[in-house]
Amino acid sequence: SSALTQPPSVSVAPGQTARIPCEADNIGRTNVVWYRRKAGQAPVLVITFDGDRRSARFSGFTSGNTATLTISRVEAGDEADYFCQIYDISSDQYVFGTGTRVAVL
Amino acid sequence: QITLKESGPTLVKPTETLTLTCTVSGFSVSDNGVGVGWIRQPPGKALEWLSLLYWDDDSRYTSSVKNRPTTAKDTSKNQVVLTLTRVGREDSGTYYCVRQGDSRRRWFDTWGQGIQVTVAS
Protein backbone atom coordinates (compact mmCIF):
# COMPACT_ATOMS: atom_id res chain seq x y z
CA SER A 1 0.00 0.00 0.00
CA SER A 2 1.26 3.50 -0.80
CA ALA A 3 2.19 5.83 2.01
CA LEU A 4 -0.37 8.37 3.16
CA THR A 5 0.40 11.93 2.06
CA GLN A 6 1.49 14.57 4.55
CA PRO A 7 3.10 17.97 3.92
CA PRO A 8 6.85 17.87 4.60
CA SER A 9 6.69 20.74 7.08
CA VAL A 10 4.40 23.02 9.03
CA SER A 11 5.51 26.16 10.86
CA VAL A 12 3.58 27.65 13.75
CA ALA A 13 4.14 30.38 16.34
CA PRO A 14 4.04 29.54 20.06
CA GLY A 15 0.55 29.66 21.47
CA GLN A 16 -1.05 29.18 18.07
CA THR A 17 -2.73 26.11 16.56
CA ALA A 18 -0.96 23.65 14.28
CA ARG A 19 -2.97 21.53 11.88
CA ILE A 20 -1.33 18.57 10.18
CA PRO A 21 -3.23 16.89 7.35
CA CYS A 22 -2.90 13.26 6.29
CA GLU A 23 -4.47 12.43 2.96
CA ALA A 24 -5.58 9.27 1.20
CA ASP A 25 -8.61 8.14 -0.75
CA ASN A 26 -11.49 7.49 1.64
CA ILE A 27 -9.31 7.75 4.74
CA GLY A 28 -12.50 8.87 6.48
CA ARG A 29 -13.64 5.25 6.37
CA THR A 30 -10.64 4.08 8.42
CA ASN A 31 -9.30 4.65 11.88
CA VAL A 32 -6.27 6.93 12.07
CA VAL A 33 -3.69 7.23 14.81
CA TRP A 34 -0.82 9.68 15.14
CA TYR A 35 2.75 9.47 16.40
CA ARG A 36 5.36 12.05 17.30
CA ARG A 37 9.11 11.61 17.01
CA LYS A 38 11.32 14.20 18.63
CA ALA A 39 14.93 14.50 17.51
CA GLY A 40 16.98 11.59 18.80
CA GLN A 41 14.03 9.93 20.51
CA ALA A 42 11.77 6.97 19.85
CA PRO A 43 8.40 7.72 18.28
CA VAL A 44 5.48 7.94 20.70
CA LEU A 45 1.77 7.48 20.17
CA VAL A 46 0.04 10.84 20.64
CA ILE A 47 -3.59 10.13 19.79
CA THR A 48 -5.77 7.20 18.82
CA PHE A 49 -9.06 7.28 17.00
CA ASP A 50 -10.95 6.18 20.11
CA GLY A 51 -9.82 9.12 22.17
CA ASP A 52 -6.65 8.08 23.97
CA ARG A 53 -4.33 11.07 23.80
CA ARG A 54 -0.98 12.02 25.23
CA SER A 55 -2.11 15.56 25.96
CA ALA A 56 -5.45 17.39 25.92
CA ARG A 57 -3.84 19.78 23.43
CA PHE A 58 -3.93 17.04 20.77
CA SER A 59 -7.11 16.30 18.82
CA GLY A 60 -7.88 14.33 15.70
CA PHE A 61 -10.57 14.49 13.07
CA THR A 62 -11.09 12.37 9.99
CA SER A 63 -13.50 12.92 7.13
CA GLY A 64 -13.54 12.20 3.44
CA ASN A 65 -10.00 12.00 2.12
CA THR A 66 -8.28 13.84 4.97
CA ALA A 67 -7.36 13.13 8.57
CA THR A 68 -6.12 16.08 10.61
CA LEU A 69 -4.08 16.25 13.78
CA THR A 70 -4.59 19.53 15.61
CA ILE A 71 -2.16 20.74 18.23
CA SER A 72 -3.56 23.59 20.29
CA ARG A 73 -1.53 26.18 22.19
CA VAL A 74 1.67 25.05 20.55
CA GLU A 75 4.79 24.96 22.72
CA ALA A 76 8.46 24.80 21.83
CA GLY A 77 8.47 21.20 23.03
CA ASP A 78 6.05 20.26 20.26
CA GLU A 79 8.80 20.54 17.66
CA ALA A 80 9.01 17.07 16.16
CA ASP A 81 8.11 14.87 13.21
CA TYR A 82 4.49 13.72 13.20
CA PHE A 83 3.22 10.61 11.42
CA CYS A 84 -0.26 9.30 10.73
CA GLN A 85 -1.00 5.59 10.48
CA ILE A 86 -3.92 3.42 9.44
CA TYR A 87 -4.67 -0.26 9.41
CA ASP A 88 -5.98 -1.37 6.02
CA ILE A 89 -8.32 -4.18 6.95
CA SER A 90 -8.80 -5.26 3.32
CA SER A 91 -5.11 -6.05 2.88
CA ASP A 92 -4.16 -6.63 6.54
CA GLN A 93 -1.43 -4.01 6.22
CA TYR A 94 -0.33 -1.10 8.37
CA VAL A 95 0.35 2.09 6.40
CA PHE A 96 2.10 5.23 7.54
CA GLY A 97 2.10 8.81 6.39
CA THR A 98 5.12 10.45 4.83
CA GLY A 99 5.67 12.54 7.96
CA THR A 100 5.44 16.27 8.77
CA ARG A 101 8.08 18.25 10.59
CA VAL A 102 6.53 20.83 12.88
CA ALA A 103 8.70 23.88 13.46
CA VAL A 104 7.84 26.28 16.26
CA LEU A 105 8.84 29.79 15.24
CA GLN B 1 7.91 0.51 32.51
CA ILE B 2 7.62 -0.99 29.04
CA THR B 3 10.74 -0.79 26.90
CA LEU B 4 11.96 -2.31 23.67
CA LYS B 5 15.56 -2.30 22.52
CA GLU B 6 16.90 -3.22 19.12
CA SER B 7 20.29 -4.81 18.60
CA GLY B 8 22.22 -6.20 15.68
CA PRO B 9 24.71 -5.25 12.97
CA THR B 10 24.84 -1.72 11.67
CA LEU B 11 26.56 -2.72 8.40
CA VAL B 12 25.52 -5.60 6.19
CA LYS B 13 26.75 -6.57 2.73
CA PRO B 14 24.37 -6.89 -0.22
CA THR B 15 22.84 -10.37 -0.63
CA GLU B 16 23.58 -11.24 3.02
CA THR B 17 21.00 -11.90 5.72
CA LEU B 18 20.17 -9.22 8.28
CA THR B 19 19.27 -10.42 11.75
CA LEU B 20 17.94 -7.95 14.32
CA THR B 21 16.91 -8.73 17.87
CA CYS B 22 14.32 -6.90 19.94
CA THR B 23 14.65 -7.36 23.68
CA VAL B 24 11.59 -6.25 25.62
CA SER B 25 10.95 -5.51 29.27
CA GLY B 26 7.92 -4.57 31.29
CA PHE B 27 5.81 -7.21 29.53
CA SER B 28 6.16 -10.69 28.09
CA VAL B 29 6.16 -11.51 24.39
CA SER B 30 3.75 -14.31 25.30
CA ASP B 31 1.23 -12.08 27.11
CA ASN B 32 -2.26 -12.70 25.76
CA GLY B 33 -3.11 -10.30 22.95
CA VAL B 34 0.37 -8.81 22.60
CA GLY B 35 2.20 -8.38 19.32
CA VAL B 36 5.79 -7.32 18.67
CA GLY B 37 6.62 -5.94 15.29
CA TRP B 38 9.20 -4.22 13.14
CA ILE B 39 8.94 -0.94 11.27
CA ARG B 40 11.70 0.69 9.24
CA GLN B 41 12.40 4.05 7.68
CA PRO B 42 14.75 4.27 4.70
CA PRO B 43 16.57 7.61 4.39
CA GLY B 44 14.23 10.27 3.06
CA LYS B 45 11.28 7.91 2.88
CA ALA B 46 8.18 7.11 4.88
CA LEU B 47 7.94 4.69 7.74
CA GLU B 48 7.27 1.17 6.44
CA TRP B 49 5.67 -1.57 8.49
CA LEU B 50 7.46 -4.90 8.03
CA SER B 51 6.08 -7.51 10.40
CA LEU B 52 4.04 -8.33 13.47
CA LEU B 53 4.36 -11.47 15.59
CA TYR B 54 1.60 -12.22 18.05
CA TRP B 55 1.71 -13.91 21.43
CA ASP B 56 0.28 -17.10 19.92
CA ASP B 57 2.93 -17.22 17.14
CA ASP B 58 0.54 -15.92 14.50
CA SER B 59 2.56 -13.66 12.21
CA ARG B 60 1.84 -10.97 9.64
CA TYR B 61 4.14 -9.46 7.04
CA THR B 62 4.20 -6.54 4.66
CA SER B 63 3.15 -7.33 1.13
CA SER B 64 5.85 -5.04 -0.29
CA VAL B 65 8.84 -7.17 0.78
CA LYS B 66 7.99 -10.53 -0.65
CA ASN B 67 9.08 -13.65 1.24
CA ARG B 68 12.22 -12.10 2.71
CA PRO B 69 11.32 -11.21 6.29
CA THR B 70 10.61 -13.77 8.98
CA THR B 71 10.19 -13.33 12.72
CA ALA B 72 10.44 -15.63 15.69
CA LYS B 73 10.27 -15.20 19.43
CA ASP B 74 12.30 -16.56 22.27
CA THR B 75 10.02 -16.49 25.27
CA SER B 76 12.78 -17.45 27.70
CA LYS B 77 14.78 -14.35 26.70
CA ASN B 78 11.73 -12.16 26.04
CA GLN B 79 13.00 -11.42 22.56
CA VAL B 80 11.69 -11.21 19.03
CA VAL B 81 14.11 -11.72 16.14
CA LEU B 82 13.69 -10.31 12.63
CA THR B 83 15.50 -12.05 9.80
CA LEU B 84 15.65 -10.34 6.41
CA THR B 85 17.26 -12.36 3.65
CA ARG B 86 19.05 -11.21 0.48
CA VAL B 87 19.37 -7.59 1.55
CA GLY B 88 19.97 -4.82 -0.94
CA ARG B 89 20.74 -1.12 -0.64
CA GLU B 90 17.00 -0.42 -0.45
CA ASP B 91 16.98 -2.18 2.93
CA SER B 92 19.18 0.49 4.49
CA GLY B 93 17.47 2.61 7.12
CA THR B 94 16.43 2.85 10.73
CA TYR B 95 14.69 -0.25 12.07
CA TYR B 96 12.28 0.10 14.98
CA CYS B 97 10.91 -2.61 17.21
CA VAL B 98 7.32 -1.89 18.29
CA ARG B 99 4.66 -3.26 20.60
CA GLN B 100 1.01 -3.74 19.88
CA GLY B 101 -0.48 -4.13 23.31
CA ASP B 102 -3.80 -5.52 22.17
CA SER B 103 -4.33 -7.29 18.87
CA ARG B 104 -7.72 -5.57 18.56
CA ARG B 105 -6.10 -2.13 18.73
CA ARG B 106 -4.39 -1.66 15.42
CA TRP B 107 -1.61 0.65 16.46
CA PHE B 108 1.78 0.53 18.19
CA ASP B 109 1.79 1.80 21.73
CA THR B 110 5.53 1.61 22.42
CA TRP B 111 8.56 1.93 20.15
CA GLY B 112 12.21 1.19 20.57
CA GLN B 113 14.85 3.81 19.95
CA GLY B 114 15.69 2.29 16.57
CA ILE B 115 18.85 0.90 15.06
CA GLN B 116 20.50 2.30 11.97
CA VAL B 117 21.37 -0.35 9.37
CA THR B 118 23.43 0.28 6.26
CA VAL B 119 23.66 -2.15 3.38
CA ALA B 120 26.93 -1.61 1.55
CA SER B 121 29.80 -3.61 0.21
Q: Could you give the topology of this structure?
A:
The complex is a heterodimer of chains A (about 100) and B (about 120).
Chain A (H helix, E strand, L loop, with lengths): L8 E4 L5 E6 L8 E6 L6 E4 L10 E6 L2 E6 L8 E9 L4 E4 L3 E5 L1
Parallel strand pairs in A: 1-9
Antiparallel strand pairs in A: 2-6, 3-4, 3-7, 5-6, 7-8, 7-9
Chain B lengths: L2 E5 L3 E2 L5 E8 L9 E7 L6 E7 L4 E3 L7 E6 L4 E6 L8 E8 L9 E2 L3 E5 L2
Parallel strand pairs in B: 2-11
Antiparallel strand pairs in B: 1-3, 3-8, 4-5, 4-9, 5-6, 7-8, 9-10, 9-11
Care to describe what's here?
The complex is a heterodimer of chains A (about 100) and B (about 120). By secondary structure, chain A is mainly β. Chain A has strands spanning about 10, 20-25, 30-35, 45, 60-65, 65-70, 80-90, 95, 100-105. In chain A, strands 1, 3, 4, 7, 8 and 9 form a six-stranded mixed β-sheet that branches. A three-stranded antiparallel β-sheet of chain A has the order 2-6-5, with no helix packed on it. In chain A, strand 3 (about 30-35) and strand 4 form a beta hairpin. The N and C termini of chain A lie far apart (about 35 Å). In chain B, about 0% of the residues lie in helices and about 50% in strands. In chain B, the strands form two sheets. In chain B, strands 2, 4, 5, 6, 9, 10 and 11 form a seven-stranded mixed β-sheet that branches. Chain B has a four-stranded antiparallel β-sheet with strand order 1-3-8-7, with no helix packed on it. The interface of A and B includes residues 45 and 85 of A.
Report the span from N to C terminus of chain B: 39 Å
Radius of gyration of chain A: 13 Å
Structural class of chain B: mainly beta
Largest binding interface between chains:
A-B, 23 and 22 residues
SSE order of chain A, one letter for each helix or strand = EEEEEEEEE
Largest sheet of chain A: 6 strands, mixed
Q: Average pLDDT across residues of chain A?
A: 94
Major sheet summary line of chain B: 7 strands, mixed
